[in-house]
Amino acid sequence: MFPLLSKDANIYISEDLTEDIEKLIKTIPEDKVFILTDEGSYRHCFPKLSEVKGISEDRLLIIPPGDENKNAETLQKVWHFLSEKGADRKSLLINLGGGMPCDLGGFAASTFKRGIQFINIPTTLLAQVDASIGGKTGINFDGLKNQIGVFNQASAVLIDTSFFDTLSHENMVSGFAEMIKHALIYSKESWKKLRKFDIHDPDMDVLRELVASSIMIKNHFVQNDPTEQFLRKALNFGHTYGHAFESYALKSGRPVLHGYAVAYGMICELYLSHLRLGFPMTDVIDISNYLKEVFGLFKIETSDYKELFRLMTHDKKNEANRINFTLLDEIGQIQVNINASEDEAISAFEFYRDLCKDC
Ligand code: GLY
To answer: Which of 204, 242, 279, 293 could cross-link 274 (Cys pair, CB 3.0–4.6 Å)?
Structure first.
């Protein structure tokens, strides 16, 4: 039997994956249960579902992995698969994998025959604490990330940290960045607790508890503002600079995983929080050094600022041509929709570059 983590969002921590999935799908006729996964998750994670009564490879679709395949072409494959296999309004789609199958599968389910139910079984740390929670579904379009999509909550999200047994260390560290973000935007106590944890030598029992707390924090922001009108923007902390780092790193042939880019983004946004809101400089320095220690740094030069800044001005969270930041007054005290001048924004890159002088 699984413990319920959130009643409103039907998030469960699994204790016995087979039994728990069977419980979640028991009201659905067996031939109406479909499963979507990507190639890597099929290899590493699907075998854990092999004993589940009601799940059959006959109703399984394996899609190509990665953000580059989170597109309209893959989406059409899912619609086509559901159609061909006789899915109807009573059907259920189970999305198994990281953020990509959860986002794309959630959107496919939300739009097929005007919407069928879906369950997320996230298998990466990033997907468990972030991507699979909160009802953001969608695909990339015209070169822009998550450009097409809908808000629609999964009927259930089932969390099982034993999937991490086959997750790469780099992906574990990447997911940990979102946990750090959750702690910093929520409370000093959460931050103090998380900071003691060593993601480079993880105690899996402790991690399981921290994952649960992190999900509860995310859920707090989602439940209070499901369609991101105001409070949910707190979850964008570190992401305005983070997305610029991520795109720039990709363009310059030195790609970094999302969470690493968010960690670099948090360093800049902590500094900006100091400039705009008086966030204590001692904490900026302390947390930045911690982030540097955990994630290393992506080296930048002054000549990179212009392009990094341009990428930030293209962030889809901006409104009316203003860059909108989520910043902190102090740990656990967020302010959303804060603007900064170009000089202030650049000085945060300067602070970051200073930090990586000895990298
Ligand atoms: N990943 C941020 C959010 O779900 O709002």
So the answer is: 279
pLDDT single digits (tens) 2-46: 888 888 889 999 999 999 999 999 999 999 999 999 999 999 999
For domain 169-355, give its CATH number from 1.20.1090.10, 3.40.50.300, 1.20.1250.20, 3.10.250.10.
1.20.1090.10
Report the separation in Å between the CA atom of 219 and the middle of ligand 1, taken as the mean of its atom positions.
10
The answer to which of 176-180, 319-323, 330-334 has the lowest mean pLDDT is 319-323
What global pTM score does this model have?
0.96
Could you tell me if the CB of 274 is within 6 A of ligand 1? no
Which among 150, 151, 223, 236 is the best mutation to test ligand 1's pocket, defined by most ligand atoms within 8 Å of the CB? 236
Listed in order, strand segments (DSSP E) in 112-225 are 117-122, 136-141, 144-151, 156-159
Nearest atom (ligand 1) to Cα of 228:
5
- How many angstroms separate the Cα of 63 from the Cα of each of 46, 96, 97, 134, 273? 13, 11, 11, 23, 41
**Candidate of 124, 136, 157 to mutate for ligand 1, largest count of ligand atoms within 8 Å of Cβ:** 136
pLDDT at position 321: 57
Q: How far is the CA of 52 from the centre of ligand 1 (A)?
A: 31
**Joined tokens for residue 209:** 């508890």
H or E stretch including 342?
helix 342-355
CATH class of segment(s) 2-166: alpha beta
